[in-house]
Each structure stands twice: as structure tokens, then as C-alpha cells.
Amino acid sequence: MPADSSRDATYEKPVEVMSGWPMLFIGLALMLGAVVFVFVGPGLPPLRILGAALFEIFMVVMLTGLFSLQPNEARVLILFGSYKGTVRKSGFHWASPFYAHNRGKIPWGVSPPADPKAGGRVGAGGGIVYKPLKATISLRARNFNSDKLKVNDKRGNPVEIAAVIVWRVDDTAQAAFDVEDFESYVTVQSESAIRYIASAYAYDYGEDDEVTLRGGGDEVSHELKKELEKRLAKAGCVVDEARLTHLAYAPEIAHAMLRRQQAEAVIAARQKIVLGAVSMVDMALRELDVKQVVKLDEERKAAMVSNLLVVLCGTAEAAPVINTGTLYS
Question: pLDDT tens digits for 258-289?
Fold first, then answer.
């Protein structure tokens, strides 16, 4: 049977630690007392010096447990590979000096080969550079502005799309232990979610009431946020806002789509013009008939309708022609 991923998740455990100020003052006082002990303490001088040196080393080790947290910062406490809890309270603290300061390291890149001109050894190649993952995690809101991604929309048209995402860490244990590097995880999953949303909607001109990328801004942003929250939940991150910042056809079809938009705009304008012209002609015929200005037979009405439609629907200014005869001559 497939394993339930929720059983493998690590959830945050809040813990309280000591204030660092009492430990700092006590440690400094004891270290000073060890120095005084060398000169005025009982016993042989070599033994006093050895005892004071060992005590000084012990106090230095204990004082390495001091750490500080700024507002909206947290530190995960790891003791010999075991997660003991998370400190969220800002200020100056002391915890066991055996708590790890880093939670591992990941490959970050490759260092360039040594330059002989700068004193490097000839033939010395570059090595892998590792990035340490600190135990202190920022809880502040962060912006991720994606690159312009090229993806096919629902109709298969290539489009360029980009988005800005406001996110923050909510569960420090999941961010620290359920993914290798939660910042890289957010970057990759965000771009994947943007591609998924772009392929789920048409760029424009949807059928009936279909939501499109261009016209359904709020709804598309809402769906993008939902998709991001689902993908980033494993890393203990939440999404505060997600908005599209760039949306355009790909350059190879942009000109053709622009001509299509222009043609559809012209057709829509013509439809309105024709509807307006027909209503004006109908109103003119009814007013002439009601006020009995002139009586027109069907042939004259047809000629009048034709002339009015030419004048109202034409793109160029009409030039009137005076008829000195009759329609029947």
C-alpha cells in the first residue's frame, strides 16, 4: 500500500529557553573568578593553573549557547540530529551549547579553477561549493518575482507569463526538515504552478462565459494562490498573495494575434453601427408615416432605406446627388 505522506511530516514544537543575560553575567563573573583563583586559591600553583584553564574552557563552551533572535525570526533546536523544538520569541537567549547552529549543507555550485597569475597552483581544478543551511529561519513575508515563462495556453497558443508571489514560512519544522532547501523549493514549485495555471485557461476570447487569463484577473489570481498553497504546504509555507505581472503572446505569434484582435474589433464596431443605422431608418420611416409628411410606396421606401444605410454605415463622407427627375423615369 502507498505510504501516507502526512505520517512523514515534521510539525513544529514551540519551546521556551532561558534568557541570555543572566547566563552572560554569571559566565563572565565565573571566568573572572577563575583568574583570581590562580593567584589566591589553595593548593599548588600548577594545579590551580590547570584547574582554572579547564574551568575557563568549560565556561567558553557554555557561553557559545548564547544567541539572539530578531522579531519574526525563529530558531530550530537540533540536538545530535534530533529535533527538540522551535524558539520564536525575539530577544537574547541561552540554550544548550550542543544544539546545532546549522541544519546541514547542500551543493551550491562549483568554484572556478585556480588562476596561476593570482598565485594558484597550475592545473588545480574547481571544487563543489556547499551552502550551509542555518538553524535560524526568517518568518518575514517575502516576494518572489518569477521570470517570464513561455507556456502554451488552453488553446495551444504560446504565451509569456510571469507572476509575483508573497509568501512566508509558517511551520519552521516542515521548512527545515521536510524539504532540503525550502527557498529553492518555493522557487521551483511556484514556476510549476504558474505553468499549470497558464495551461488551464485560454489567453483571451473564451467561449460564452469562460474565464480567460486576460479577462479573469481576480479569479485567475485566486486559483493561482490555491494551487501554490497546495504545493507549498509540504514545506510549511503559506501564500499571502499571488498576482500576474506579465501576460502577452509569444513574439512568434504576437503579430498574427494583433491582426486578429484588430479584425474582431472592426467586426464588433460594424455590428453596433449596423444596429444603430437600422434603428434610425426604422424611426425615420415611422415618423414620416405618423406625421404624414409624405406617402411612400414600397419602392420609394426601399430606395430611402438604401440611401440612409449607405450614409449611416459608410466609412467615407457621403456626397449627395440631386435627382431632378422621378424614380420611374
Answer: 666 666 667 777 788 788 878 887 787 777 77
Strand residue runs (E) in 88-236: 91-94, 102-110, 128-134, 136-138, 142-145, 149-152, 158-169
Condensed to tens digits (0 to 9), the pLDDT of residues 148-183 reads 999 998 888 889 999 999 999 999 999 999 999 999
Give this prediction's pTM.
0.72
- CB-hemisphere CA count at 13 Å for 239? 26
3-state helix, strand, coil in the chain (%, to 5): 45, 25, 30
Residues 219 and 277 in one domain: no
Residue 31 maps to a domain: yes
List the domain range (segments joined by +) for residue 52: 7-105+127-134
User: What distance in Å separates the CA atoms of residue 206 and residue 100, rounded to the nearest whole number?
Assistant: 55
303's grid cell: 430606395
Smallest Cα–Cα separation from 163: which of 222, 211, 204? 222
